[in-house]
Amino acid sequence: MATSDTAVLDDALARASTGDDAGFLELWRALQPRLLRFLRVLGCDDPEDVASETWLQVVRDLHKFSGGEDDFRRWLFTIGRHRVIDAARAKSRRPAIPMISSLDLLADQQLVEDQVLDGISVQGAVALLARLSPDQAEAVALRVIAGLETPDVAKILGKSAGAVRVALHRGLKSLADDPAVRALAGRPGPGPSLWTLEGVDS
Amino acid sequence: MNSDLRGETGSPHPGVDRLFRTLTAAGTPAELAGEHDTLAMFRANIHPPAGLEAEPAGSRRSGRVFRLPVRWGVRLAAVAAAVAVGGTAAAAYAAVLPEPVQHLAHSVLGFAGVPDRPAGSVHGTSGHHARSPHDQPHPALAVSTPATTPSGSSATATGTASATPGAGGLVLSATAASTPITAGSGAVIDGRLTQSGAGVQGVTVTLVGRLAGQEAWRVAGSGQTTSDGNVAVSVPALTANAVFRLVVRGTALSPSVAVNVSPPITAILDVSSTGVSDLLVVSTEYARAGDVVVLQVQAAGGSWLFLRDRPLNAGGKASFGLSGKRLGDRDVRVVLLATVTHAAAVSNAVMVPPPG
Asked: With an 8 Å Cβ cutoff, is B198 touching chain A?
């Protein structure tokens, strides 16, 4: 999250921990969309339901939580990931990453029911990320959507930071090579690039 | 955001850039659709005070049992008694309490605007309904309102209500003059009785209140409408959250208004002579043992960060050991978490002196 967001959410977090509705809603509004996107990338069948369970656990344990907005984010996404694993176990199967094969997806009206940014809907973007291998998709999702630092991603995934860097690197390379992602480059979109050309060493 | 990701992933790709910008964009309406349910979940589950956690697991689903301090019952009973002795219309309401006020409106006040009970049970709206023997006070009420009125003064009360021009078109509004208020101070509920938009004068309006966690509505006071239909009824020394409604017998029932109380809370720093650990002593009034206080420290940006929490002891106090080495020159404060019976409260800020 950007620094200004972090300060605002630190305050919202402190207020939420006092039982303040408005503070909690501020946190929820900022993080629920990211949580849903993360759950979808993991192939969660019912992301809304799993997100609700995640927030319920957060609220119940909020009085035991201490830390800032970044710690909270790490906590939230860790719980969310556990809930996905639990849900998958309950169905006696591993979390399945949905295979999206058609580029038409991005233009599919049903999927583009929400707002379209930079020529791609949120759901389309999630679907593109979900096309990576499960390891890469999860690493990139935690790094980008959850906004966690690489060592934190490594802890959540139970891997070394080096292994996570490799997964991130390969995931990003796969995305960059994906024709559907390449096609996005040609679409009109506002704003300067966040990602500039630099060395790919990791 | 993600300052080192660029180095790690080296994405030079505008397509990837777009993708990530979309993945981190603000929430869509669809993604935020569950806000209402989430808020309800938050209110139902946030931080049960330590004193309430020892309940049997089976009672969780049916809602927590919130015990109210004894002083509440006593205080309200005293109010009801005072009203009854005054012989005003309120006495009649005291006699039928603690019925839920909606029920009250139908079966006793004859209010015709609430589709809550079968029509057969609704009494006439004339206001002259004579009390039958089975309209006597509920046995449970005798405990809390010892000065329940005899039937004679009930008749007086009905007479007062009959001054209103029937049930047709009368609208009673209610608002809290302010909320939250400091616990232990008085609350004022303002109302206005109107007919076709014009204020109705000289009508006795009764204020009924229900304390947090209680089912029963009790009389909290009464007042007469002024020439423009306004009425203000005050409640002395409210020390727990409550919901109020204004009632004109047989005629009008206001929506409910909530008044929350914020317990006084002070933090005093007892600076250690040895400099090892200062003690921040927190004192509250009208909070309960087990209610949780949270120690916060002010961050450089001005926001307050969680440090620790602790339940209040039986005396409504709690203390936190503070390290001058760690917190020196920083402001700390204590927040009393909201419970069902009171709103949250924030103490004064205290600067922790540096060690030595």
From this structure: no
Q: Which residues of A touch B52 (CB under 8 A)?
A: none
Q: Distance of CA A32 to CAs A9, A140, B24, Å?
A: 13, 18, 11
Averaged pLDDT in 10-residue chunks for chain A of 202 residues? 69 82 91 95 87 92 86 95 86 46 34 44 86 92 93 94 93 88 65 31 30
**Shortest CB distance from B23 goes to which of A30, A60, A125?**
A125
pLDDT tens string A111-144: 333 344 445 678 888 988 998 999 999 999 999 9
pLDDT at B106 over 50: no
Structure tokens at B23: 């993945």
The residue of chain B with its CA nearest to that of A184 is: B15
Taking an 8 Å cut-off on Cβ atoms, the answer to whether B16 and A193 are in contact is no
Sign of CA dihedral A44, A47, A52, A54: positive
Q: What percent of chain B has pLDDT over 90?
A: 21
Q: Residue B29 carries which DSSP code?
A: T
How far is residue B232's CA from residue B225's CA, in Å, rounded to a whole number? 8
Q: Which helix (H) or strand (E) holds B305?
A: strand B304-311
In chain A, what residues touch B34 (CB-CB under 8 Å)?
Answer: 32, 48, 51-52
pLDDT in tens, B218-263: 888 889 999 999 999 998 888 889 999 898 876 788 888 999 999 9
ipTM exceeding cut-off 0.95 for this assembly: no
Chain B, 12-71: which have a CB under 8 Å from a chain A CB?
Answer: 12-32, 34-35, 37-39, 41-43, 45-47
Interhelix angle B14-23/A122-130, nearest 10 degrees: 110
Q: Which residues of A touch B47 (CB under 8 A)?
A: 17, 19, 62-63
**Contacts of residue B37 in chain A, CB cutoff 8 Å?**
52
What pLDDT is stored for residue A121 in this prediction?
79
pLDDT over threshold 60, residue B70:
no
Nearest Cα of chain A lies from the Cα of B245 at a distance, in angstroms, of 24
Q: What percent of the residues of chain B are helix, what percent strand, and what percent coil, each to the nearest 5?
A: 25, 30, 45
Distances in Å between the alpha carbon of A144 and those of B156, B254, B278, B289?
73, 52, 43, 44
CB contact under 8 A, A196 and B6: yes
Number of cross-chain residue pairs from A and B with Cβ atoms under 8 Å apart: 217
**CA separation for the pair A51, B35 (Å, rounded):** 12
Cite the DSSP H helix spans in B46-140: 70-86, 90-96, 101-107
Beta carbons of A14 and B32 less than 8 Å apart:
no
Of residues A32, A62, A150, nearest to B31 (C-beta): A32
User: Distances in Å between the alpha carbon of B96 and those of B107, B108, B156, B159, B236?
Assistant: 10, 8, 15, 17, 22
- Residue B139 in tokens: 């046995």
Beta carbons within 8 Å of A125's beta carbon, 6+ residues apart = A37, B19, B22, B23
